[in-house]
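[Meeting: bench + compute handoff]

Bench side (C.D.) handed over the final construct sequence. Compute side (W.E.) agreed to return the predicted structure before the next meeting so the bench team could plan truncations. Sequence as handed over:
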Amino acid sequence: MCGITGWIDWEVDLTRQRSVLDAMVKTLFRRGPDAEGVWLSPRAALVYRRLVVVGPEGGGQPMMWRCGNSVYTIT
């Protein structure tokens, strides 16, 4: 089973919190030893660990989608 973690903060620049994010993703290793993804912005931090069961070529995360001038990111 895959694992996700992260947080949103409207007041703190999360790009300075990479070491915290790295520690958080290490706790998820058993949830998904096959792949790891990180998305970090000033206001949001997302991390995932993946256990590849089906479709190893199409399940990379975080996933990003552009619509006009906006970019949406999910994990």
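W.E. noted at the follow-up: The longest helix spans residues 18-26. C.D. will use this when planning the next construct.
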